[in-house]
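User: For a benchmark we're assembling, each entry needs the component sequences followed by a predicted structure for the full assembly. Here are entry 17's components. Please fill in the structure.
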Amino acid sequence: AQSVTQLDSHVSVSEGTPVLLRCNYSSSYSPSLFWYVQHPNKGLQLLLKYTSAATLVKGINGFEAEFKKSETSFHLTKPSAHMSDAAEYFCVVSGTGRRALTFGSGTRLQVQP
Amino acid sequence: DVKVTQSSRYLVKRTGEKVFLECVQDMDHENMFWYRQDPGLGLRLIYFSYDVKMKEKGDIPEGYSVSREKKERFSLILESASTNQTSMYLCASSTTRQGLEAFFGQGTRLTVV
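Assistant: Structure for entry 17:
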């Protein structure tokens, strides 16, 4: 079985300050891990993915995430928030034997001017 | 670019109606999925299909059925719509060759009155 826990349902930061969105996963297999972003009234867009290569993964729009197997974490970070980063972010896991992705409950990021 | 197209952005249906949600993808992906998205719950898997005429139940299949007669098309059917099926419905497709990264449609917001 696999599951994902996003530790914060809402995160608020000021423009120009760092962003940290936390995610812990559980998987019986070596997982693939993803972060998706959903802007208001838009579809889901892939930010980045980890598939057992480098543990530090760089994505679009300056986001990156680090896979830490010992902590079963895959936190998403960005050095400096921009107003356009305001959206909902989903941490997602997939594993061998199940083709479908398992989603976390989402973290809504607010960026204050 | 991969394109996943859902037939409607908004639907309003009456309780007890039979409802069809249609999804088409243009990338020859073998896997297709239906999720529903509700605030605070993330995306929950309803059904998925890994080949034509093949389907598997997801986490919340009750009250739904699916049909996949052609590789590019995956339909979600609400046999008798109820108000608790008011939600955002998202279709996605993926291929194992791309590490199961899923591509999403824009979503159908269904309201059952």
